[in-house]
Amino acid sequence: MTISPEAPARGMDLLRFATAGSVDDGKSTLIGRLLYDSKAIFEDQLEAVEATSRSRGDEYTNLALLTDGLRAEREQGITIDVAYRYFATPRRKFIIADTPGHIQYTRNMVTGASTADLALILVDARKGLLEQSRRHAFLCSLLRVPHLVLCVNKMDLVDYSQEVFEKIADEFTAFAAKLEAPDLTVIPISALKGDNIVSRSENMPWYDGPSLLHHLEHVHIASDRNLVDVRFPVQYVIRPQSTVVSDYRGYAGQVASGVLKPGDEVMVLPSGFTSTISSIETADGPVDEAFPPMSVTIRLADEIDIARGDLICRPHNQPTVAQDIEAMVCWMDESRPLTVGGKYAIKHTTRSARAIVRGIQYRLDVNTLHRDECADGLSLNEIGRVRLRTTVPLLADEYRRNRTTGGFVIIDETTNRTVGAGMIIEAS
């Protein structure tokens, strides 16, 4: 089954995963191997890679060349954008967020990993755990990525040594335990040779775990979704200007969490009015229930004043309505740092507000986890705990409970550029 990388099959289970690792760890080769072995590249792409490999004098088809264009884009100064690649197998479709791991690209990794279900962290078997390996793991835990996979790469260069693998696995497992990583899998691989990528390697009979692709196909992600707290940010009010359906009023958006069904009692925030759901509709027609990440239109039994930025929830399970928030902020602007007293625009779900920085509690060193409580600002790629005051209340949850209603972006009003990303720790 071969599926175009630009058009993954509809109706299949989707896994988003991010990759992290330095150039020397073989990240590009791993991505190329997954694309090649899953037949997610076109023949002309493979022929071009083979021709380039021959012209460079390589003795093998250098699959890392499949992502060389992405690396070139980063070198040309892409700021927030992350390169995405698509492929699919008969069991599942995948979106790879190609996120660089160097410290100067922290903003890129935060962007790509913020929506990931799983993160692949590559480690060179010859070098073992490095400072940046720990940094990647910390950023993934900060972003609440539910599943981590440590790929100990280049096992062919250490003679497929079980001792080398177990030493790295034990060291990383001990470090991940401090970060409260919910699910960790460690796999010995050789991206260049294809060992344990698609099928189990005969070169490592001592390893009895799954291959990487088998794990990606079977990792359970359905329970990662928050199906308890109903959160439906209203994106658009549908009111057709037609005499045939003059009484139609629907509220369109994407379900952030929870399960919605016709007949359910709901509350609209910030007004506090309650009603019941009369119907839930999609582009394919009415449905009996809606759950994340479905995009639907909800109709209510009562006429309530609802606008973009409002939120539909359960009457007895509401988010915090707050103007004072504390959040971990990753600063992404290279021209001006975040400073106390700075004024910015905030985009939180479908709600927009203006905000002022009331204080910086500390700046976090992502390498040592040291907290600098004397910090007076955040420069490019720095992360810190920040207090903000917004002009209008945000309808927020803690990021650790809900990544959608707990996250926001900070926008420079003068340039309209996204300059920061925040994860809410506390709202009051």
From TrEMBL:
Keywords: ATP-binding, GTP-binding, Nucleotide-binding, Nucleotidyltransferase, Transferase. Pfam families: GTP-eEF1A_C, GTP_EFTU. GO terms for molecular function: sulfate adenylyltransferase (ATP) activity. The keyword Protease does not apply. It is an enzyme of class 2 (transferase). InterPro entries: CysN_GTP-bd, CysN_II, CysN_NoDQ_III, G_TR_CS, GTP-eEF1A_C, P-loop_NTPase, Small_GTP-bd, SO4_adenylTrfase_lsu. NCBIfam families: CysN, PRK05124.1, small_GTP. HAMAP family: Sulf_adenylyltr_sub1. This is Sulfate adenylyltransferase subunit 1. The lineage of its organism: Bacteria, Bacillati, Actinomycetota, Actinomycetes, Micromonosporales.
